[in-house]
Amino acid sequence: MARIIDVAKHAGVSVASVSRVLSGLPGVSEDTRARVQAAAKALNYRPDLAARRLRSRRTDTIGLIVSDIRNPFFTEVSRAVEDMAYEHGQRVILCNADEDPEKEAFYLELMHNENVSGVILSPTLQLLSQFRASDYTFPVVLVDRCERSTEADAVVLDNVDAAYRLTEHLIERGHRRIAFLYGAGSATGQQRNEGYSLAMARAGLAAQASALRPVVADARDAALELLAGRQPPEALMASNGLLLLGVAEAVRELGLPCPERIAVAGFDDLPWVRLVDPGFTVIAQPTYDIGHAAIELLLQRIAQPSQAVRRVVLRGELIVRGSTAQRVTAPA
Amino acid sequence: MARIIDVAKHAGVSVASVSRVLSGLPGVSEDTRARVQAAAKALNYRPDLAARRLRSRRTDTIGLIVSDIRNPFFTEVSRAVEDMAYEHGQRVILCNADEDPEKEAFYLELMHNENVSGVILSPTLQLLSQFRASDYTFPVVLVDRCERSTEADAVVLDNVDAAYRLTEHLIERGHRRIAFLYGAGSATGQQRNEGYSLAMARAGLAAQASALRPVVADARDAALELLAGRQPPEALMASNGLLLLGVAEAVRELGLPCPERIAVAGFDDLPWVRLVDPGFTVIAQPTYDIGHAAIELLLQRIAQPSQAVRRVVLRGELIVRGSTAQRVTAPA
DNA sequence: CTGTTAGCGCATTCAT
DNA sequence: ATGAATGCGCTAACAG
């Protein structure tokens, strides 16, 4: 393996000049630059990253800790982050905390040890409840999850608003007994519950919300139980794609016609939601924009560590499909 | 930040002893060991990874380059790899090549620069066609994609067999005109086409296979075209989850009753395939096992760089659902 | 504009 | 079992 000194000899210059050229620093003549590049190419030289990082005390690496990589939402976000990061000469370490605070702590520790330039994180509720960006040795930007009082840069959906609009849509379509199944494990779920409750209250309707683990099976069971009750809901609303999947399973199992007997709505415009029978009405999140905004925020924070905390709040898009058609009630 | 010399002073020993203790090397008295550990804890010492890597010439890092992170198959595989890797003291760099040979090359280059211990890779067809593990400076294990002659460790599904069994199942259920939509961009798709063709030939039926890009929209369009033909197929079979999604969209758009008018089958037991109306019959892949086997192979290869090339071939599981019910034909 | 040189923090000889 | 000393390959400070 060629080292920097070999390149220097080959080009007939000093190692300092080689370093300058390869780091794109100014203060090198065109001639030297060209010769160094030729020599580097001829020797197929690659700088040793470990040495460079040790010496420069920079890693040009950002960490991305998502809470569940199986969730297509995070998959999309991570694509945006990666794309942008590499464009800015940053590498990405992608980690999956799996909604597990222990794993999350492990990875944050790892980030510290790796001496990353910064981290983008979708925190568990436990972590978020006491989160302060200043507790970390590196800049942190939160995505998807953030409470109003959290002292950290963040990019989130306007969850309250989105859930409010979705609920409102169901109400407008004539549904009254609207049950909400939401993920209790995240700030996002709680905020969406707020929006739902608000809309129901404004309409003078009774809210019926179930806090669940963000697991398909739990949503399915909860939906089955609700639908088996004496006064089953006319509409089911889920706070994210996973729970929506569980709701869909339950409705299908019971063979209830949708939307005639049961309307369905949820979050996340996943590939399959327009596939199931009447097509599901959902709030679509601007996933790519979210990832984009997050890394933008992070890069700026890295450049300006002491700037004021900033928050980017994006709006969800209501996509209406057959599952929330106008309710037809027998005339009184 | 505490450095190794601080720990040494605090413990009243030399840096060499500290290094030995923290690397878990033998040749240290119990007493010293305890004092070093206490000192490290007291100072909240973390070894500088850049320095350690520079000096030791090891990174304890493995690279995982998947061809499409949005594909749930790879998401599952990556979970298995991560779990195992951390258990073995290896860190994982997860990269998404997006089925793009350029990105793939970029990441392989990155792996080289990062000096990883080894790489797990699902190669594009272009790369695979001329792939030799010996061309790389690090051990490589292929996952999901591999040709018979490829000189590299690999973990794959028995694609020919799986497709053969799936086709056979359709034939047994009375379907004759069975069209196959497969991803032309991967070895996997081609092998599944082999299995399909073989089964059709054995049954004396004419194969009708369409090579497609692994994109939902293309599968949808192809399926629409097939179904609009003068003699439309009685069954559609897709070579992976994405294409199956496209097929499902087409069938739904046309409002064709499934399985009466059109049977459907495919690969990958994704969450939604049992959700769509009659439930889709699929071949399920043992994704976690695949990831597990891959890293197992890699770790052994790292330990034994010159051992013979090995291949793990796993069997797919046929999961029968409503979409392939017995075909009812009018008596002749 | 260019070269010389001193470490970055650690693992690893080689003594003892 | 322990410590002193060396240098991994590079960047950055400084001198010229």
TrEMBL record, chains A, B:
Stretches assigned to the HTH lacI-type domain: 2-56
SUPFAM superfamilies noted in UniProt: lambda repressor-like DNA-binding domains, Periplasmic binding protein-like I
Keywords in alphabetical order: DNA-binding, Transcription, Transcription regulation
One GO MF term: DNA binding
Name of this protein: LacI family DNA-binding transcriptional regulator
